[in-house]
Amino acid sequence: MPRQTKLPRKILILGSGALKIGEAGEFDYSGSQAIKAYKEEGIETILVNPNIATNQTSKGLATEVYFLPVTPYFAEKIIAKERPDAIALSFGGQTALNCGVELFKKGILKKYRVSVLGTPVSAIEKTEDRALFNKEMKKIGVYVPRSIACTSKKTAFAAAKKIGYPVIIRAAFALGGKGSGGAWNPKELDDLLDTAFAFSPQVLIEENLKGWKEVEYEVVRDRHDNCVTVCNMENVDPLGIHTGESIVVAPSQTLNNYEYHMLRELSIKVIRHLGIIGECNIQYALDPKSADYRVIEVNARLSRSSALASKATGYPLAFVAAKLGLGYSLPELRNAVTKTTTACFEPALDYLALKIPRWDLDKFKKVSHEITTEMKSVGEVMALGRSFEEVLQKGLRMLQVGLQGFASNERLGITTKNLAHEIAVPTPKRIIAIAEAFKKGWSTAKISKLSGIDPWFLDKMKNIIDMEAELKKKRKNIARKNTAAAEIVLKAKKLGFSDKQIGICVDKSEIEARNLRIAMDIRPVVKQIDTLARGGGSGPALPAGGGDASPYKEGHGFGLRHLCHRLVGRI
């Protein structure tokens, strides 16, 4: 495979360090892929990661593993001993990025003649330093939220007064939204500033865009300026909570053609201007009432969204990013998953992938259950399917918190009295509160006004509740196993209903419901996901349930009950 740069002999890879909220499993995935990419080139890999419970620290993967904290102090000692030719900063999350930037600023990398692979540190600083980032975006005419970078409480209060309350507080170089939050008055701002300055010497005060749509794009660029947008994702929850705390669907579902391509072109414009080499994640706020937008932030590294995008599309982002850092171009690289396309080929999806966070807040004393701009989830799952209803139900079951899906659940402490509050205030229970509201006859418009969730998503959720009601209404007819009954059961299956859910609706056990389904000749089908939307052969590793007709099935096809994947178990 042709290249125009000399390969390094030995590479130091900075891992994400100890498990923590907002950073762990997704970076184990990224780091493991990077190590494999380097080993394929015959390069020695030196890994720094104190977490023994990871795949990347397994014996035989990296050439040498140091179970030491990912800090400049220990990194320098390892560099002095191992004398690597290059260092990879993009595969260990915010911890690795911050460590690498410090090594660069202190002159340690220059002292030992260690080059930075992929995105240069100057570009990383432009994405992490909020003042520099805003300045760079204004140079190319890209809109960012009105904001002021502050280094003291005094300047922060003045900035908030100038912008106008409510405001959002963001800490620079912070992980998982730490130190961030929303303030509606000076007193709330004062409390948040104490926390924000504890995490970072620089704090950004910016306009509050709560209620706007949040959209993400995963973009890849090589040193020859070739760019591809691998995947775009849409948060079901509106802006106002951390993207790691939101239900996320890929590809986006409510963007029109103009909005999709506008944001895609902006993503390419931004990554080219910043000079990022490898992969980056770009987050947007999009006004649901117009085409107005803001660039929220750019992550010049592999992120938790990158892990979702890789698994959803079959595009090995971390593997490709590692190769690009070595000097390869996108057209030169073969997609290791599809086997038939180059890395310069954008995936096309004819299915949905849905990510749902997993919270376990009862284990954390005195922690509010309200979901905000700071991450609290300890893991997440991904579900694959043909419809939003199907993936939502699969994902909720996979959380293993006692949910049957979106329908057929107990109230879980939600009463009519506090229903509006549970919908308006984001908590882990909000999704079930929405289901209860639909059962009580609330309209999509009313729930959308309270929650800020797009009516398209709510209409899909209502379809599930309507099907639950239909199953209950026609439970006697369904037991007769006729053609009409089979059509209802098949429709329920395509909406993600499990045998147990159907059994609950028709007053039968799970086994009885399964036997009833089999008697109707309705059977499950497992397929591999096709990342080319049937535009060519592909062989991704993840299976997906088929919800459409297929010549290879017996009876009718539908998505499997637990056909989804745990993306990460962070804690």
Describe this structure in words.
The chain is α+β, with helices and mostly antiparallel strands. The chain has four domains: 10-117, 3-Layer(aba) Sandwich (Rossmann fold), CATH 3.40.50; 146-207, Dna Ligase, domain 1; 213-347, D-amino Acid Aminotransferase, Chain A, domain 1 (2-Layer Sandwich), CATH 3.30.470; 404-569, Carbamoyl Phosphate Synthetase, Chain A, domain 4 (Orthogonal Bundle). 37% of the residues lie in helices and 17% in strands. The protein has 20 helices and 19 strands. The protein has an eight-stranded antiparallel beta sheet, sandwiched between helices. The protein has a five-stranded parallel beta sheet with strand order 3-2-1-4-5, sandwiched between helices. Strand 1, helix 1 (25-40) and strand 2 (44-48) form a beta-alpha-beta unit. Helix 5 (121-128) crosses helix 6 (130-139), helix 7 packs across helix 8 and helix 15 (444-451) packs across helix 16 (455-473). It is globular, with a radius of gyration of 24 Å. The two termini are 40 Å apart. The model is unreliable at 546-571 (pLDDT under 50).
